[in-house]
Structure formats: C-alpha cells, structure tokens
Amino acid sequence: MGLIDNVLYKGQYLFIGSFSTEAFKLVDRVHHLYRSFTFARNDFCLKISSGSAYRIIGSFNLGNKLMNSVSSTGDHDGYLTVLEASK
Questions:
Q1: Of 47, 50, 40, residue with least CA distance to 17
Q2: Residue 83 CB: number of other CB atoms within 10 A?
Q3: Dihedral, 64, 15, 38, 44 alpha carbons, nearest 10
Q4: pTM
Q5: pLDDT in tens, the chain (87 residues)
Q6: DSSP state letter for 48
Q7: CA-based angle 38:45:60, to the nearest 5?
C-alpha cells in the first residue's frame, strides 16, 4: 500500500511517498495488518531506481522512530530515502 503526493519546492517537484506491505486476515471481519514499512520503502526505491530516470542519492534520518512501552512505529526506522530524477 502506498501514498504518493507531490510538492513544488524551489522550482522542482518533490514526490513524497509512504509505503507498507500488508496482509489481510479474514475472521469475523477484515483486519488490516502491516508487515513491514522498511521492506516496502526499500523495495520500492530499488525497483524504481532500476532501469528508470531515478537513482538513489542518499537517506535522511527524520528522527521519528518511536519505540516505548506505550507506542511504537513498528519496524519503521525513521529514515527516508532520497531519489533524484536525471531528466
């Protein structure tokens, strides 16, 4: 599952995406279970940078990983991957 949006910033388009791999479980009703945010991000970035105008140029720590006794961001590591289009 993914969400992609774009923003015009300093004359350039920034595409922002959030991804997770999911599983669906039918019991009494449909349940939404995420499997991996990190895998989905890495998989998407590797696939889009393979044979396209995009290439991975780095990563950035957003500092938003949360892991405590009350809340968790799951396997999200707090990093974003930066891709750049060559055309």
A1: 40
A2: 18
A3: 180
A4: 0.67
A5: 455 566 777 887 777 777 777 766 666 565 556 678 888 888 889 998 998 888 999 998 988 888 888 877 777 788 888 888 886
A6: H
A7: 65
